[in-house]
Design goal:
The protein has 156 residues and is mainly α. The chain has 7 helices and no strands. The two termini are 15 Å apart.
């Protein structure tokens, strides 16, 4: 039996919830991230990674996991098109985003064993801000530490 009966319909709430989380003001005010397209994409990737890792641990059908991945990247592609990017840009950009997602996914898979400095460095590498203030990586690390535990306890 498949986890998602009507794949698209059942994935929309998950996608919307993760996008909603990336729009939380504390990321931009308290953590000093710039409110940019790339930062929101990276936040989506980190949240999605923890969700997919939990689904894998719960032995959810691999086709369902792939469907989630496909749905999220299709939505990102549609958002790029809405921003006015053309086909050649989108094709090139999506390849790069998929590569970055897998890098984040692999890192998040080992999240609990990573040293705090490695986690902080990871956030410094991905996230940017427009001001001279430092990104508060320790707050991001704490947030995703808590999120990783939260996702394990929810019913997916």
């Amino acid at each position: 039996m498949h986890f998602f009966k009507s794949k698209k319909r059942d994935m929309v709430p998950l996608y919307n919830k993760i996008v909603f989380l990336t729009r939380k003001n504390f990321f931009y005010k308290e953590y000093n991230l710039s409110d940019s397209f790339s930062n929101r994409i990276y936040l989506i990737f980190f949240h999605l990674s923890f969700v997919l890792i939990v689904l894998k641990r719960k032995e959810i059908d691999k086709n369902d996991q792939q469907s989630i991945f496909d749905f999220f990247f299709k939505q990102i592609e549609l958002n790029c098109r809405e921003l006015g990017y053309g086909d050649s840009f989108i094709n090139k950009k999506m390849k790069g985003l998929i590569k970055l997602f897998y890098e984040i996914l692999i890192t998040c898979h080992n999240w609990k064993t990573l040293h705090i400095n490695h986690k902080n460095d990871l956030f410094l590498r991905f996230f940017t801000n427009n001001s001279k203030s430092k990104i508060l990586t320790s707050k991001l690390t704490n947030y995703f530490d808590e999120f990783s535990f939260y996702v394990e306890d929810i019913s997916l």
